[in-house]
User: What shape does this take?
Amino acid sequence: MRLILFDIDGTLIDTGGAGSRSLKLALKELFSIENAFQGISMAGKTDTEIIREGLIKHGISMDGNINAVVEAYLKNLRKEILNDRKHVKPGVYKLLKELGILKNVAIGLLTGNLEKGARIKLEPFGLNEYFPSGAFGSDHDDRNKLLPIAVKRLENLYQRKIEIDNCIVIGDTPRDVQCAKIYRAKCIGVATGSYSIEQLIEAGADYAVKDLTDYPALIHFLSFRACPGKK
Assistant: This one.
């Protein structure tokens, strides 16, 4: 069985800034700090990693506060995701439907989002139904630990053995690339976030595209028949 694992932010959807706003609002409500995450890069990190960096930056103890921030973040995210700027990235729906008819292919998530946060973000777009399981920032705050977790969960779900070299991670940041390549899994870079095709290839992506609309080439690669490179 082949396992295709998708990142969320910048790859499947654009939340219209709902995630970052919700984190900022959480620290403002709890600690009266404005723009608490200014200067902290969020791209490709897990939510818990970002929260830890924010607390450290402002000299706030971790004890009990991470859970408090998480709860405030999720509360705000449920409201912020309703903004009018959110949208699905090009090609997502059609690609997921195409993958859904392939034999011996499983689809899952590999994301830095907390699982509850991931589901909140995907719900307005009707995307949760495509992803029965995966690995999340709530499983480990180090993104590089998530691939084996996703594999184990999907193996248990489908009662099938999944080899790491039969996994492909699809994401929009070098961190998505890294979390696949350290296990010698494959990675498709998608330049729908902050990084270009060239930057994703330089980071080690086996294949890179400007977006997910090139279905024949993507399906060809996902069937392990294409040559690595950029599109």
In short: The first helix runs from residue 18 to 31. The CA atoms of residues 174 and 199 lie 8 Å apart. Residues 225-229 have pLDDT under 50 and may be disordered.
